[in-house]
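Page header: ASSEMBLY MODEL / two components / 779 residues total.
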Amino acid sequence: MRAALQIARNDLSRRLRDRTALVIAFVAPVALAGIMGVTFGSGDNTALVKIAVADADNTPQTQFFIDRVLDSMSLGGGVAVVRLTDVAEARRLYEQHGVAAAIELMPGSARQLRLGSRPLIDRQSSRTRPLGKAVSDGFFAAATVRSLTLQLILTTLANDRVPPPQVLAAAVDPANSATRARIADDPVNRRASPLGYYAPAMGIVFLFLSVGGAANSVLAERAAGTMARLRAAPIGLGAVVAGKTISILTLMLASMLSLWGATSALFHAHWGDPVAVLALIAATTASIAAIGLFVTASAKTEAMAQAATGGLAFVLAIFGGNFFPPGSLPPALEKLALLTPNGWALDGFTTLTLDAGRFGDIVRPVVVLTIIAAVAGTAGIIRFRRVMAVA
Amino acid sequence: MTVSPTGQAVAIVRANARRLQGERRLPFFLILLPITIMVLVGTIFGTGGKRLAVGVVADTQHDGLARDFTDALSRSNRVKPRHVGGADAVRRAVRRGRLTAGVIVPADYGASIRRGGDGRITLVVQPGRTESAEARIAVGAILARANIDINLAHALQTAEGLTFESAIGRARRATASIPDFLGGNTRPESPFSYTAPSNLVLFSFITALVTSATVVSSRRMGVTRRVLVSPTPAAAVVGGELVGAFLVALVQASLMLAIGGFFFGVGWGPPVAVVAMLVAFALVSAGAGLLLATFVRTPEQAITLGPPLGIGMGMLGGCMWPLEGVGPVMRAVGHVVPHGWAMDGFIRLIFDHRGIAGIAPQLGALLGFAALLLGTAVIRLRRSVLLS
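Prediction written out in full:
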């Protein structure tokens, strides 16, 4: 065991002198998770978009019309409305990305309203700003429906004479109505920062790259003849294998733990119950190390090993869901994700961070990841011993 | 026979191309990976035709008004209602992102409205998620449309003493010609319209960074030194590497463009403007690749650092998610990297149907990046070639 630890210490100290390995294990995951964290914010209910509504006529009628249409749309806290009277200013804000859409009631709108018609509405919106476009389309449709309703009441129903159309017109105005179907928001997940999910998702991808780099060094040592010299020493092959495995596992564990620490300290990410997070990190790291070991030990050259682990990292990340927000995979792909260690690990991290789960809730992913680690690890070590035996 | 410096540069390009042909990783990174990601991302987040999944809990068996409401949800082309077992199941599905939002219609919804009270529908949303807000607008619009009939029915009840059932029936007949709020709104673009350019930008850049390993490899193996012993000027060596890097980036980008256009129906825009964007971004990618080659010591370092560097810049520049959905600071940061400008340019061509004049600022910015990166790379490369 002493020999194994000595080999592990030596291997680790050499690896820590390799700046590329440090970047892949520590810097890149924190940097990418940080970008995601800053981009997606803290998950609170502040406005997601601003919408400009410009009223060129700025008369009591047009102001009332805009009030009523916005009220009927129940926009909620995610949309902030900027009221303006200058159409050019609204367009400028839209062009400069100050607002996600601009709704413009053009000159002559007040007259249109007096005639019982829809005001003249121009819109600036783009399909690449979906929420802004949804609000802009919604406003146009709500304005159309409101005008149509009033026209209908004033013409069709007016023929009945009872009740007078003005009474009906007033009654269907939401502002005058006590009865209506309303929306009451029920925000879930207020506490959790999305980084609690994205950080481990990103960390897992880099675990694959780390294990690839680390295991490659074994092949490089074989090519350089270091392995042959190690075997000439009075230590068993098992000690060499154990030493190398301990070194790889330590680096990967340190990578995930530093990501957890850095994202918690710098971005207030909440990964969940610490005991459960530790268990999940350990199981995830072991399973990926085992797969990496198996793949690398099966490769003939460093280049092949690097291509295989790099390719595997991306393929498993894509199908495991690492590059997508939680829950966004279609049902069929969600099932496919559970054929990958990434899918199981992310299922566990999602439970901890989004469902505020405890250790008992992640037993299944931990067990599955441990089984993967045991199976792939055993196969990897057998191949690894063979690699070194011929060194 | 003497060969001109141009001929020597071409020979270097050919030699590098032959070495790349023997590289077995290339088809995976150049073709298979980008296409797989494009298809997956396009299917999941496509900009066209996708309806937002909204979970619904409602007693549609016994409550007619609740049934009317869920029927209206089904007609909307913005949301796709999915009936879920209960309120807790909806909250859990929204929390885990499986549903964009959830609608819980209370058991006394219809009864309350009949009595003249409020029908308070609970909307379960994920704060901070744009799609949740979009679903809220769609649900709000459907409720607003329903309110017209409900309020008209109450007005008729008050005026004529009708029962609620008779009044709502008459109200519906009277308003039958009024459409659902967002009924006719279609989203015609290919679902790959955003993912195709974002993958083009992302992968042509990463490929340029990764294939810069050949430059490092030439330097490490002493090929550059041996070439310089021959009557080949340093300029020809640098020029050869530069043209090679540019061609790799251009081929990758063109491949993505062709796949997006032919297989996924992406309308890229006016050909002249598209070609200008491709050339400008290939120059940027080549410059970045060559610059990376001057900083790393081994080919493995270029191969290892290229993907995270490219992914990070892609994230900032809007290749992973639209910059339109991020805050003003991150949007500004996204334009510190060339990816942000490239995405803006392609978006203007594909979505806003602009011509070459409409993307002049983006082209200018990309050419500026290209000049800066290529200039620095050439100076450093020339120095390293002369020192080798």
